[in-house]
């Protein structure tokens, strides 16, 4: 095994404080929204209808979702941990605006590691003789916030001998991030086990009340840090996923909440009237959410989709083409966007993508420190994420919080082609 330090910027990056506050202020609204979508069977079905015709992965998730509803939910406590990501778009007049990139509703990571980055950057600033600036870095502890959500769900599940199960990857590449959260749970005397889908397939079972057992140990909460991309699944892993979803255990997230985080859902949310339908009577929340939306466009078959495809082909620099995938490195930009759209513009395959306005932040200079990489100054852009945590018991929200933030920074040099996965590093906001 190889242990590497997580990559980070040498210096914290400037973030406009008004936008930072705006991102925190809208997080509870996003928690409510995701939770509302997850409970709206008709909306999910209608929204994902075109996608599941062409995207096998989403279709398989949807089949499990439908099957679990058909049988009737055994689960009565729901735990959501999400991260809403933003960039600061520079309008024509140069004023930055907060624009959402996406919301991650499954396996949203780096809440653990980023709980340590403010201390790293504070130290760097002190060494540079900037202790006043160091003292202005905000404390940030999403590991604790996420663990409090898990602990609440565990408590409401109501079986003190039951454990929390982290569902982890076959090859573990981000274990220390997860350990930060795990340790917070042990500190509260909650037992944690780490298992893969394969272990669940081999050793998982349900009793008559659909309580979940691993070997003979009851599981209260399943926290997925896996299961969000097609390559996480073979036939056995799909069976394991179905077993987990059918169980009474609190899944973080349940499969409906995972579907609520798809790019197709994000795009449909931007249609006039959709937010109002999902959050009735919450006009202010709707306005706060909508203010963060960039232009999003459907490529469904039909006249509307034809027009959008033609618009993107004519001006590819204005847009990003996004497939229904998570995990980074999948989006298409510029010339490549144009070529792909030209090829698929008349086929249903185009409905496996959405189109989005490209957000254009003001670049800044920083050093990106990563193992085995030369040290040099790069032109960079940053992406701010806010962690959301909520717990619902039956119909009642018992916790709804913003649990901390994450700043990731990447070099622009690869950008106008794809900002490939793995180029971003951990950062700390310095509010200005
Ligand atoms: P994933 O689920 O793969 O993380 P994202 O929507 O977060 O998908 O896109 C991956 C990366 O692509 C983002 O981190 C961001 O750097 C870039 N990106 C995504 N959408 C846009 C956009 N509309 N404008 C500019 N960059 C974007
Ligand atoms: Mg992302």
UniProtKB/TrEMBL annotation:
Entry binding sites for Mg(2+): 102, 104, 326
PANTHER family according to UniProt: GLUTATHIONE SYNTHETASE (PTHR11130:SF0)
Function: Catalyzes the production of glutathione from gamma-glutamylcysteine and glycine in an ATP-dependent manner. Glutathione (gamma-glutamylcysteinylglycine, GSH) is the most abundant intracellular thiol in living aerobic cells and is required for numerous processes including the protection of cells against oxidative damage, amino acid transport, the detoxification of foreign compounds, the maintenance of protein sulfhydryl groups in a reduced state and acts as a cofactor for a number of enzymes. Participates in ophthalmate biosynthesis in hepatocytes.
Family: Belongs to the eukaryotic GSH synthase family.
Subunit text: Homodimer.
Record keywords, A-Z: ATP-binding, Glutathione biosynthesis, Ligase, Magnesium, Metal-binding, Nucleotide-binding
Residue sites binding substrate per the record: 83, 106-109, 172-174, 178, 225-228, 408, 419-420
Catalytic activity: gamma-L-glutamyl-(2S)-2-aminobutanoate + glycine + ATP = ophthalmate + ADP + phosphate + H(+); gamma-L-glutamyl-L-cysteine + glycine + ATP = glutathione + ADP + phosphate + H(+)
EC number: 6.3.2.3
Domain Glutathione synthase substrate-binding stretches: 162-260
Protein name: Glutathione synthetase
Binding site residues for ATP: 102, 263, 322-331, 333, 356-359, 383, 410, 416
Cofactor comment text: Binds 1 Mg(2+) ion per subunit.
Involved pathway(s): Sulfur metabolism; glutathione biosynthesis; glutathione from L-cysteine and L-glutamate: step 2/2
SUPFAM superfamilies attached to this UniProt entry: Glutathione synthetase ATP-binding domain-like, PreATP-grasp domain
A molecular function (GO) term: metal ion binding
Enzyme superclass (EC): ligase
GO cellular component, one term: cytosol
Cofactor(s), names only, from the UniProt record: Mg(2+)
Source species: Pedionomus torquatus
């Amino acid at each position: 095994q190889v242990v590497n330090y997580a990559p980070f910027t040498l210096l914290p990056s400037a973030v406009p404080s008004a936008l930072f506050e705006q991102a925190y202020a809208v997080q509870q609204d996003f928690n409510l929204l995701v939770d509302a979508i997850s409970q709206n069977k008709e909306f999910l079905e209608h929204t994902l209808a075109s996608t599941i015709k062409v995207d096998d992965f989403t279709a398989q998730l949807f089949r499990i979702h439908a099957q679990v509803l058909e049988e009737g939910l055994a689960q009565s406590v729901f735990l959501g941990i999400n991260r809403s990501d933003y960039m600061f778009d520079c309008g024509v007049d140069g004023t930055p605006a907060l624009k959402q990139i996406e919301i991650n509703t499954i396996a949203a990571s780096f809440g653990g590691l980023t709980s340590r980055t403010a201390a790293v950057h504070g130290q760097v600033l002190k060494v540079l003789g900037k202790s006043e600036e160091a003292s202005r870095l905000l404390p940030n502890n999403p590991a604790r916030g996420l663990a409090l959500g898990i602990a609440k769900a565990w408590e409401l599940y109501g079986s003190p001998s039951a454990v929390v199960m982290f569902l982890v990857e076959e090859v573990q590449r981000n274990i220390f991030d997860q350990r930060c959260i795990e340790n917070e749970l042990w500190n509260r005397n909650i037992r944690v086990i780490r298992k893969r889908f394969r272990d669940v397939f081999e050793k998982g079972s349900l009793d008559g009340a659909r309580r979940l057992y691993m070997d003979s140990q009851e599981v209260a909460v399943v926290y997925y840090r896996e299961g969000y991309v097609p390559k996480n699944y073979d036939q056995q892993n799909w069976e394991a996923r179905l077993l987990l979803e059918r169980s009474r255990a609190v899944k973080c997230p349940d499969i409906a909440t995972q579907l609520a985080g798809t790019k197709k859902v994000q795009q449909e949310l931007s249609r006039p009237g959709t937010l109002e339908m999902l959050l009735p009577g919450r006009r202010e929340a709707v306005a706060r959410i909508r203010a963060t939306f960039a232009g999003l466009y459907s490529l469904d078959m039909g006249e509307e989709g034809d027009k959008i495809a033609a618009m993107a082909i004519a001006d590819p620099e204005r847009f990003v083409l996004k497939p229904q995938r998570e995990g980074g490195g999948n989006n298409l930009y510029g010339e490549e966007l144009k070529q792909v759209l030209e090829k698929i513009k008349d086929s249903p395959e185009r409905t496996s993508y959405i189109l989005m306005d490209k957000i254009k932040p003001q670049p800044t200079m920083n050093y990106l420190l990563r193992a085995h990489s030369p040290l040099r100054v790069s032109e960079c852009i940053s992406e701010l994420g806010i962690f959301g945590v909520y717990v619902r018991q039956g119909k009642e929200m018992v916790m709804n919080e913003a649990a901390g933030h994450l700043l990731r920074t990447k070099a622009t040099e690869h950008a106008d082609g794809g900002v490939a996965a793995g180029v971003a590093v951990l950062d700390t906001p310095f509010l200005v």
